[in-house]
Amino acid sequence: MARIQPIPTDAMTPEQIRVNRKIAGPRYSGPARGPFAVWLRTPEFAEIASDFGLYLRTRTTLPRRLLELTVLITARQWTAHYEWAAHEAFAREAGLAPAVIEDLRAGRRPGFDAADEALVYDVATEIQERKGLGDATYQRATDLLGEQTVIDLLTVIGYYTLLAVVLTGLDVGAPDGGKPLPPLEK
User: What is the DSSP code string of 131-158?
Assistant: First the structure.
C-alpha cells in the first residue's frame, strides 16, 4: 500500500481541485493518481510536472515508440510498478513488439529488430546504471538519432526517473490491482 494516500476530493483546496481537474481530465471525477496524487499537496509543482510530462510526450523529436520504450526501461530500472503499468499499453499502441516488452519486464535485454530501439536501450541503461554516458555511446546516438533527439531522449529519461523515484520511494504500486514487476536480479 502506498505510503501517502491521495487527498479526497472533498478535502482539497480550491487550487488543488483546479489542478486535479487539469491533471486527471474532465471525465475522471476522483483525485489524480500516481505521483500526481502526492504532488497535489503542492499544486503548483503538480501542475508544472504535469505540463512538463505532456510536453515530453507530445512535442519532442523522440518518436512515440522510442519514448514509450524509454519509459519502460526507466520503470524497469527502478522497479516502478505504477509507471510501468501506466505505460505498457501505450508502448504496445506505439508499435513496440510484445517480445521486447516481456523481455524488459523480466529484466532481460531484448533481442531488438530495430537499430534505434537497441540504441535507446543502450543509452537509457548506460546512463542509469553507470550514472554517465560514455563517448562511444553518445557518438552512436548522435550519429543515428541526431543531437536534438539525444537531448530529448536524455530529458525523457530524467523526467521518468524523477517519477520513478517518487513512486518507489512512496511505495506506489501498480494501479487498480495491476500486475507488479518482478524484482530485478542483482
Answer: SS--HHHHHHHHHHH-HHHHHHHHHHHH
**Which amino acid, one-letter code, is at 159?**
Y
CATH of 61-177, picked from 1.10.3720.10, 3.90.740.10, 3.40.109.10, 1.20.1290.10, is 1.20.1290.10
Q: Rounded distance, CA 175 to CA 165, Å?
A: 17
Q: What span, in angstroms and rounded, lies between the C-alpha atoms of 113 and 58?
A: 25
**Axis crossing angle, helix 64-78 with helix 115-130, rounded to the nearest 10:** 30
The amino acid present at 141, given as its one-letter code, is A
* Grid cell in block for residue 133: 554516458
Total-model pTM: 0.94
Q: Which amino acid is at 161?
A: T
| Angstrom distance (rounded) from CA 112 to CA 177 | 30
67 closest CA partner among 108, 123, 133, 131: 123
Q: What is the pLDDT of residues 84-110, one digit of tens each?
A: 999 999 999 999 999 999 999 999 999
CATH 1.20.1290.10 residue spans of the chain: 61-177
